[in-house]
Amino acid sequence: MTASARDASFHAVQRRLATLIPDAIPLAGGATLELGRQFPQEKPRLDPPELIEGGAVRAHAVPGDPVARFRAFLDGTQTSRVVQYVAGIPVVHASVAAVIRVRNDRRMRTWREPLVSRALYAPLGMLPDGARSALMESGVEVFDTSVNPDIESIHPFALQDAALTSVQRHRSALERELAEEWVSAGEGDLYMDGGISESADVARSPLVVGVVKTHQQLYVHGDDLLTLFSLRAGERSSVARVSPRTRTPVMSWYLRLRDNGGRDPLWGLVRVECAAVESGSSVAASTSAKQK
User: Fold this and answer.
1) Are 155 and 128 in contact (CB under 8 A)?
2) Per-residue pLDDT tens over the stretch 206-234
3) What is the number of other CB atoms lying within 10 angstroms of the CB of residue 282?
4) pLDDT at 167 over 90
5) What is the widest separation between alpha-carbon atoms in the chain?
6) What is the Cα–Cα distance from 1 to 53, expressed in whole angstroms?
């Protein structure tokens, strides 16, 4: 449905739904689902990449002093809460946003307008007819999470996970839209929080570098794990081509930002993504430049 101009904040929507669905169970609106144990996570796994620098994963020092190359920074945010339960089924309210901040003379300003969305997420096919109609009359956009093929049961936590998955996808869509606008404008190098391979235009642009800080999925062979864990601050791994299914291939490598003494082996580690190139000489040049 098309969202109206009515207040779409959590408490405003909760009050309207309390009137529209008086038999539902309203909630006080505590911690967000992103902080709770129901937050969906990928299963940890190894995914061997295609090495394009050398025949094995090695540690490489990144020489030279750091140089500020990035003109702008892109990030997104999301906040999700259960607004009420209808027959035990959670109805989730979420606020999703994405923004690009540009650096000028050591000051940051917002590039164009941030993209913001507030909506309800629920498995519409599981709700009573009256509740489904009430959601449509709530004055905010409604997304049907029952189309998620990963729902394994009608357990409330499973349904919350399905809602969070939908929220994450919409956040990624907003970030992708902004990144594509930046690439089209061609205004300089962009640091993107997260991977860049979801959009072909972004993944193929020399202007965008993605920085991934979570490592549920590691792009290494089993025997290369020790090399990855042993990286010291200021060292990177060999460059590889990462080709996720249904996404655009990119070049990628791991970079240790801080020594992890006394912490877990992935602490202080990020994975960098940038546009894939063909020649080995271009790989070396791009790797050196993009990390400064």
Assistant:
1) no
2) 999 999 999 999 999 888 999 999 999 99
3) 12
4) yes
5) 67
6) 50
Amino acid 63 reads P
What is the pTM (predicted TM-score) of this model?
0.86
Residue 135's contacts (CB-CB under 8 Å, 6 or more residues apart) are: 17, 91, 120, 122, 124, 127, 142
d(CA 36, CA 156): 13
67 token code pair: 């140089």
DSSP secondary structure letters along 41-66: -PPPEE---EE-SSSS--EEE--S--
pLDDT of 36 reads 66
Between the alpha carbon of residue 69 and those of residues 64, 179, 212, 289, the distances in Å are 14, 17, 18, 9
CA angle 133, 138, 142 (to 5 degrees): 75
Residue carrying the six token digits 């060999």 = 238
Position 205, amino acid: S
pLDDT score of 48 more than 90: no
Per-residue buried b or exposed e for 60-81, using 16+ beta carbons within 10 Å of the residue's own CB: beeeeeeeeeebbbbebebbbb
